[in-house]
Design goal:
GO terms for molecular function: ATP binding; transmembrane-ephrin receptor activity. This is receptor protein-tyrosine kinase. It comes from Sparus aurata. One of its GO terms (cellular component) is dendrite. This protein has 7 domains: about 1-160, Jelly Rolls (Sandwich); about 165-215, Immunoglobulin-like (Sandwich), CATH 2.60.40.1770; about 295-390, Immunoglobulins (Immunoglobulin-like, Sandwich), CATH 2.60.40; about 400-500, no CATH class; about 510-610, Phosphorylase Kinase, domain 1 (2-Layer Sandwich); about 615-625 and about 645-795, Orthogonal Bundle (Transferase(Phosphotransferase), domain 1); about 810-895, DNA polymerase, domain 1, CATH 1.10.150.50. Helix 6 packs antiparallel against helix 9 (about 715-730) and helix 9 packs antiparallel against helix 11 (about 765-770). By secondary structure, it is an alpha+beta fold. The strands form 14 sheets. Strands 30, 31, 34, 35, 37, 38, 39 and 41 form an 8-stranded antiparallel beta sheet that branches. Strands 1, 3, 4, 7, 10, 12 and 15 form a 7-stranded antiparallel beta sheet that branches. The protein is elongated, with a radius of gyration of 44 Å. The protein contains 18 helices and 50 strands. Bound molecules: adenosine monophosphate. Adenosine monophosphate binds near residues 547 and 613.
């Protein structure tokens, strides 16, 4: 690490007094020496001075290495009195070359140089001595050698300083650094992380006087997607990944993930595999569980006990739970069993493979479906036909999970609407009048004939009870089970009804048709005793009073988290009825994607509506808070859930009128459920509602033109609103039509303008939005079509890869050149606020980006490097910068 400063040849000494240049032969080679040898004379003062030696500014300490010969004074006869055996080294600093001017007084003595070995007459001894010249501060210096009467020859002078060489330590590179001197024994040097490495703390190290690096501080680490290989950060090899900046190596992609090219930060799930919201993004992906197997129903103590075996394939997960779906049919009309029957321990979230069902009605035909769920079905239960349903094409003789129970009072039954080409298993069990079970028949298998082409169910099988004596006491239970065989089955078929039977399941009854609205509430909602309700915390404000989070604990039932809507004191009877009308409506619905009514309190002073609790609150807010954090397929999964809820409502002929993301609630598994029912709600409650000339209140930007124009509210107008919800979801809760006024929105819609595609919106999804916004309502898709299309998209993730064209200046409303008042942005934080990216203010500041000029210089890579990781955020910032640069275009209209 010593670095040569001045080669010897340059050290040509230019000022000589008495010294002379002598050519000598030493050890066979010839070279020149500067010599002086006035040993016999008194008071010698002979000087030899170097040329001007320029100094590197940081080198305040230099080493002078001398090679010289001194003759033994004893070898000079009679000169021993005056003869010397040492000489002196001097130095003088200067800012300029003074040429041959020489002033002795300007020189300071550095050292007396004495030989270790004296040269006698016959033997030459070369000495090497190194002296340090410290505290140099001017541009250069001279060295001088003073002889005071010795016989000496100077062979070489080497002048050098020491450096710590340029190095890479702990992935930080440090520049060559001149070693310090006495006054600064350790020089602190800061380094920079090597390419593709980052550190939280500025990397530092110390350079010692001896030119050695010691004590590195502040480790650099390879950024995500890179690993350390011999002082460098190299991209993770194909098939491996690294999610964080760390000293770790890249790890192979976990099970069921796609192996990307090199440099992967995460391995995305393979098609058909998912990560649950709580799964680490670095963990394996899991498949959907297959259907539960071997569903069996038995009766005991007046109850029906359903048992089954776990799915054959759990998709590699341990968090399997089961839920029971129940349909009851009265003649041709089937509907969800809803609150009417009781499950023990519960109808959902079962971890055991059994459930007992009670409070079944006689004369009714029940169909139970057991669904298996896991952490990943959360996303996909809204996304693909539930995995637990029988596969839609199946050539193997799989048991399906459908079990039908009939309670009869007679000893024969005709089973209609069977699926052709399907095997059915039947068992008959006697039941006494108090519900306790009697003996049961053997299981018998029958097969329906027919082929796929035969769309209608068969009505041919007839059975007789074998154990007729049991009948004397009462009913009998008739169990039958369907075994799949070579039959194509759509999910709907599992309800065990023909297609005519499915539609309509049930029609919504307007509580207004009841003369006394209180009767309606009692009919559709369960009365809860207030002592079973515990309010915990206010979570929102409804039109009629506060909304609380709380606990519902009904004796004999598991306690559940609930939302409690209250009616504020001082209400009128009309307000009370309006308030409770929401429960009358909600109580008629039973669907996974409709907020579930637990019950009402009407018989006490403080009326309450109790519904299931949705941990993540309203969808618009939730998406705004998680802007950019979900992939398209997750957003489309949410939309699928909302569409399924809306299909259910439209099948029941219920028109919502106020479908908007603010009226969708999200639970902790990201399931979306439609909420906000009620008679006067649209008119009164919604802050988005705008009074129309006819006195009603309408949320203009969500409402179809015909509903605004002549109050034609239909499921088709709900479809228009659903299109707006799709836009809100894909834009992470952005306000539709941004800051345009209601009037401007109506005018634009009339002129056939429509909202443009949100950023990163799959083209197929945007096309569906545009379909929902067709002027002619009869041409809009129906909710059934929407659910099917969204299912299709979710089943083939590739279909979401084509992204709709969009113009950042309009679609994310990026201010083109200036702040809201039209003047250019005064600060980086003002700009970030305008594009709703304030959370990155600190990242910009820390990276030293403090002026808008600096912002304009930033490249995409720079934005990433300062810590903006989410692709949506990266794009928003990058597009805004592009927009700032491109001052010429100002677009004011949006796409047709
Ligand atoms: P609403 O009167 O139905 O609009 O409710 C007012 C607010 O209370 C909503 O915006 C939600 O933030 C909250 N809220 C209402 N129902 C629930 C629920 N079931 N779970 C969680 N939060 C709810």
């Amino acid at each position: 690490h010593g670095s040569l400063f001045v080669p010897l040849t340059l050290l040509l000494c230019v000022v000589l007094f008495q010294w002379e240049v002598i050519q000598r032969t030493l050890n066979g080679s010839q070279f020149y020496t500067f010599s002086v040898c006035n040993v016999g004379e008194r008071e010698q003062d002979n000087w030899l001075r170097t040329t001007f030696i320029q100094r590197r500014p940081s080198a305040s300490r230099v080493f002078v290495e001398l090679q010289f010969i001194v003759r033994d004074c004893n070898s000079f006869d009679g000169a021993s009195l005056t003869c010397k055996e040492t000489f002196n080294l001097f130095t003088s600093e200067s800012d300029a070359d003074v040429g041959t001017t020489f002033r002795k007084g300007q020189f300071k003595k550095v050292a007396t140089i004495a030989p270790d070995e004296i040269t006698s007459k016959n033997e030459l001894r070369i000495n090497t001595e190194t002296k340090v010249v410290e505290n140099l501060s001017r541009k250069g210096f001279y060295l001088a050698f003073q002889d005071i009467g010795a016989c000496i020859a100077l062979l070489s002078v080497r002048v050098y300083y020491k450096t710590c060489p340029a190095t890479v330590k702990s992935l930080a590179s440090f520049p060559e650094t001149v070693a310090g001197g006495e006054n600064q024994a350790l020089r602190e040097v800061s380094g920079v992380c090597v390419e593709n490495a980052i550190s939280e703390e500025l990397p530092r190290i110390y350079c010692t006087v001896d030119g050695e690096w010691v004590v590195p501080v502040g480790q650099c680490q390879c950024k995500p997607g890179y690993e350390e290989v011999e002082d460098e950060c190299q991209e993770c090899k194909a098939g491996s990944f690294k999610a964080e900046a760390s000293g770790d190596k890249c790890t192979p992609c976990p099970a069921n993930t796609q192996e990307l090219d090199s440099g992967a930060v995460v391995c995305p799930c393979m098609d058909g595999f998912y990560r649950a919201p709580n799964d680490p993004p670095t963990g394996p992906c899991s498949g959907l569980p297959s259907a539960p197997r071997d569903l069996v129903a038995t009766t005991s103590a007046g109850k029906l006990l359903l048992t089954w075996s776990p799915p054959e394939d759990t998709g590699g997960r341990t968090d399997i739970t089961y839920s029971i779906e129940c349909q009851r049919c009265e003649g041709m009309v089937c509907q969800s069993c809803g609150e009417k029957i009781r499950y023990e321990p519960a109808g959902v979230g079962l971890t055991d493979t059994k459930v007992s069902v009670s409070e079944l009605d006689a004369h009714l035909n029940y169909t139970f479906t057991v669904e298996a769920h896991s952490g990943v079905t959360v996303l996909t239960s809204q996304a693909v036909p539930p995995a637990n349903r029988p596969p839609s094409t199946s050539d193997d003789n799989l048991d399906v999970t459908t079990y039908t129970v009939l309670i009869l009072e007679k000893n024969s039954v005709q089973i209609k609407d069977l699926v052709p080409g399907t095997a059915y298993l039947f068992r008959v069990q006697a039941l006494s009048s108090d519900g306790s079970p009697g003996g049961s028949s053997m299981e018998e298998q029958f097969e329906t004939s027919g082929t796929e082409g035969n769309q209608h169910g068969q009505r041919s099988t007839c059975f007789f009870l074998k154990n007729e004596t049991s009948l004397i006491h009462g009913f009998c239970i008739f169990l039958f089970r369907k075994r799949n065989s070579h039959t194509r089955q759509g999910p709907e078929d599992t309800y065990f009804s023909s297609s005519e039977q499915l539609k309509p399941l049930k029609t919504y009854v307007d509580p207004h048709t009841y003369e006394d609205p209180n009767t309606a509430v009692l009919k559709f909602a369960t009365e809860i005793h207030p002592s079973h309700i515990t309010k915990q915390k206010v979570i929102g404000a409804g039109e009629f009073g506060e909304v609380y989070r709380g606990i519902l604990k009904v004796p004999g039932r598991k306690e559940v988290a609930v939302a409690i809507k209250t009616l504020k004191p001082g209400y009128t009877e009309k307000q009370r009825q309006d308030f409770l009308s929401e429960a009358s409506i909600m109580g008629q619905f039973s669907h996974q994607n409709i907020i579930r009514l637990e019950g009402v309190v009407t018989k006490f002073k403080h009326a309450m509506i109790v519904t299931e609790y949705m941990e993540n609150g309203a969808l618009d807010r939730y998406l705004r808070d998680h802007d950019g954090e979900f992939a398209s397929f997750q957003l489309v999964g949410m939309l699928r859930g909302i569409a399924a809820g809306m299909k259910y409502l439209s099948d029941m002929s219920y028109v919502h009128r106020d479908l908007a993301a603010r009226n969708i609630l999200v639970n902790n598994t990201l399931e979306c459920k439609v909420s906000d029912f009620g008679l006067s709600r649209v008119l009164e409650d919604d802050p988005e509602g705008t009074y129309t000339t006819s006195g009603g209140k309408i949320p203009i930007r969500w409402t179809a033109p015909e509903a605004i124009a002549y109050r034609k509210f239909t499921s088709a107008s709900d479809v228009w609103s659903f299109g707006i919800v799709m836009w809100e979801v894909m834009a992470f809760g952005e306000r539709p039509y941004w800051d345009m006024s209601n009037h401007e929105v109506m005018k634009a819609i009339n002129e056939a303008f429509r909202l443009p595609a949100p950023m990163d919106c799959p083209s197929a999804v945007y096309q569906l939005m545009l379909q929902c916004w067709l002027q002619d309502r009869s041409k809009r898709p129906r909710f059934g079509d929407i659910v099917s299309l969204l299912d299709k998209l979710l089943r083939s993730p590739d279909s979401l890869k084509t992204i709709a064209d969009f113009d950042p200046r309009i679609s994310i409303r990026l201010p083109s050149t200036s702040g809201s008042d039209g003047s250019p942005f005064r600060s980086v934080s003002e700009w970030l606020e305008s594009i709703k990216m304030s959370q990155y203010s600190e990242n910009f500041a820390c990276a030293g980006v403090v002026t808008m000029d600096q912002v304009l210089q930033m490249k995409n890579e720079d934005i990433k490097n300062i810590g903006v990781r989410l692709p949506g955020h990266l794009k928003r910032i990058a597009y805004s910068i592009l927009g700032l640069k491109d001052q010429t275009s100002t677009l004011s209209v949006f796409a047709v």
